[in-house]
Each structure stands twice: as C-alpha cells, then as structure tokens.
Amino acid sequence: MKDYDQLSARALAKAIRKQKISSVEATKEAIDRLKAAHEVTHCLVSLEGDVALKAAKAIDAEIDKGKHKLPLDGVPLAHKDMFDRKGKIATWGARIHAEHAAKHDATVLARLKDAGALQVATLHLTEFAFGPTGHNYVAGHARNPWDPTRITGGSSAGTAAAVAYGAIPAGLGSDTGGSLRLPAACCGITSIKPTWGRVSRAGAMPLSPALDTIGVLARHVEDLALMMRVLAGHDARDAGSSTVKVPDYVDHLDDSLKGVKLGIDSTVNGQASAEV
Fold first, then answer.
1. Which of 159, 167, 200, 244 pairs with 213 at a CA distance of 20 to 30 A?
2. Looking at residue 177, what DSSP letter applies?
C-alpha cells in the first residue's frame, strides 16, 4: 500500500470508508510492518493477525452495504500490553501476571472497538509500566527504530517504536510520570498526557491511581484529537472519571495559537545535557 507508513488513522479510516482501500488490505500491511518493526525494535508482545483480519473482513462487508460510518472504520491499531481484554491475558511486561485472564474489556479498548478500530497486536512495555528507558529485563529491551543502539523511552516503549517505524498510525499507552511523553520524544512522534480523569482507567494496569492517565501515541497530531474524542468521557467503572463535558478536539485542530503561552521549567532544563 503506497505511503501507508505516512497515513494518519483519520485519513486511513476515510480511505476505507470510501473503499479506496479495504480494511483487510490495511490490516495485512500493518501485520507485515509490525513483524518487520519487531525485528528492529522488539516492539511486539503478541501478534493477533488472524483475529484482526476476520474483524477487518466483517467491517469491509458492512461498508459494502453502506452501513459503516465510524470515526476509526477498519483502522488497524496496536496497544501497550496493560489493558484488559475479556478472556485474554495482559502481561503488564512481567511474569507474575502472565496467568490472569481478564473478565471484561478495558473501557478504552471497548470505546475504540465501538468506533470501528481493530486491534492487531499487544506491545512491549517496561515491567509493570515503571521505567523511563524501555528496558525490560524480563521480556527484553525495546530499541529505537531510528537507531537501535538507542533507547525508545518508556514505559510505553512498544507503542512508540511501532508508530515511529510506520507499522501502525497510532496506539494506546499510559502516563504516570512520563510514560507517554518520554517515548514520544525519544522516537520523534506525537503524544499528550490527558488531564487526570479525562480518559477512563477501568481495566488498565494500576500503577499510581492518583497519577495514572491513559493516552495516545501517534504519527499525526490530528490522530491525538480524533482518538481523544473517542476515548474521553465519563465512565462509571472508574471512580476518578471526570464528568466535565468533553469538547470536540477535532473541531479545534485549526485553532490559532495566538496568545497561547508555553511554560518551560528552567530548573529541569538546567539538568539536561547540552545535546538535549
């Protein structure tokens, strides 16, 4: 598929809805690219191509009937392996949790599925999502796709590596103390740490409930807006979930930055090396 590695999830969904490409084609491309990315970056925990292709065929069939008009129609995604899926095991990047099958889907995964997205794989993370480098001494270290001798940043290492490699347009991660922002910076992609309580943590591995947030890593800023529109909103399963009205982030993509102020912590910058 031409320029697949440059497409946003938003553009890919539009192309699938208009039948310029099929969800099956996009999913096959994602599977092949994830395999290639893993060889370089060690980004995969599990690849679930057969299940994803079956779902892709079903979506293509619905689109043929003119029934599908969802924001992420048929788009293949992959996510940090810390989210519950009914009947499946999320490893949390550790051995101790490797035998505990979930009873319910995490809210964020359910919302992405309802928006038409497919999950092709689960992705590498630092053990128990606790560490800034992407190193995992149980499952092996993640490697930066731009230079495999360098770190990906962590703990959402696999998602950042897969997105930066061009295997998927976007995927989920988490951020307690930098686990979205650090790998996004190290791998040259985009992310945002949502306001605490904006995105449900129900069914996600808890690290520090007073600080944990779930968010997106993506190649394009527009996908952060699109996926936040899908993910954000109150969830009764999460006691910390915000009831504040969710804006349509996509509608604000072209808003002017005039008057916006950028805060820089000079004390933190002073500790960084000159290269950084």
1. 167
2. S
**Which of the following is catalytic: 8, 23, 28, 80?**
80
Based on DSSP, count helices (H) and strands (E) in the chain, helices before strands.
8, 6
| Number of domains composing the chain | 1
CA neighbor of 46 nearest in space, from 36, 58, 56, 38: 38
223/92 Cα distance (integer angstroms): 25
Instruction: Establish if 275 belongs to a structural domain.
Output: no
**155 belongs to the catalytic site:** yes
Does some domain include residue 58? yes
CB atoms under 10 Å from CB of 263, counted, come to 4
> Considering 155, 156, 200, 241, which one is annotated as catalytic?
155
> pLDDT (tens digit, 9 = 90+) per residue, 23-73?
999 999 999 999 999 999 999 999 999 999 999 999 999 999 988 789 999
80 belongs to the catalytic site = yes
Please say if 256 is a catalytic residue.
no
pTM of the model: 0.95
pLDDT at 100 over 90: no
Q: Evaluate whether residue 274 is within a structural domain.
A: no
